[in-house]
Amino acid sequence: MLEHLANYRILLGSNSPRRRELLSGLHLDYEVKTLPDIEETYPCHLRREAIPLYLAGLKADAYLPFLTGNTLLITADTIVWLDGKVYGKPAGASEARQMLGALSGRTHEVITGVCLTTQEKQKSFHAISSVRFAVLDKAEIDYYVEKHAPFDKAGAYGVQDWIGYIGVESLTGSFYNVMGLPVRMLYRHLKEWER
């Protein structure tokens, strides 16, 4: 369905196995390229969707030296947003438990910023999903953190993991956005690329 992209070398700039899985679902030929130690800090005045959009763009900038004339780069960043606060990747088990405790019994937003970049142009967009968590007890939080080590996940959880099975009461918006890549929206933007 995306034959007009056949002349592009499509790069996914991501370490995330979930993003790889989701992009593969679009039946695109693509390569994964990862760079070590990409800075992931943002100006403190940024709020909500401005944060993952900024970080997706920052990641894209790091890849610019590797882009040739026919390269189309996809970068993304996901955050959890609750009460005006960002919940990114936890630094360790203690912070993961704190994050899950804060999300317990509440509704939060999962926001992903995506950046499509070539040498000539850049297009950014974002998706927002709302997730309602059931009340999680300490034993459930401890079990999840110990068994799943969710330290590479925004908000310290993967919706596709055990915690999603037992903890997510409802979800509004894209499920795949909560996993880390809003594939329907990405497909639409790729479909419109250069048309």
CATH class: Alpha Beta
Major beta-sheet overview: 7 strands, mixed
What is the H-and-E element order? EHEHEEHEEHHEHH
Radius of gyration from the alpha-carbon trace, in angstroms: 17 Å
Low-confidence stretches: none
Distance linking N and C termini? 14 Å
Structural class, from secondary structure content? alpha/beta
Q: Helix tally?
A: 7
Shape: elongated
What's the CATH topology label?
A: Maf protein
| Overall pLDDT score | 95
Number of domains: 1
What percent of residues adopt helix (DSSP H or I)? 25-40%
The second-level CATH architecture is Alpha-Beta Complex
Percent strand equals: 25-35%
Number of strands: 7
Explained architecture:
Strands 1, 2, 3, 4, 5, 6 and 7 form a seven-stranded mixed sheet that branches. Strand 3 and strand 4 form a beta hairpin. The protein contains seven helices and seven strands. The chain is an alpha/beta fold. It has one domain: Maf protein (Alpha-Beta Complex), CATH 3.90.950.
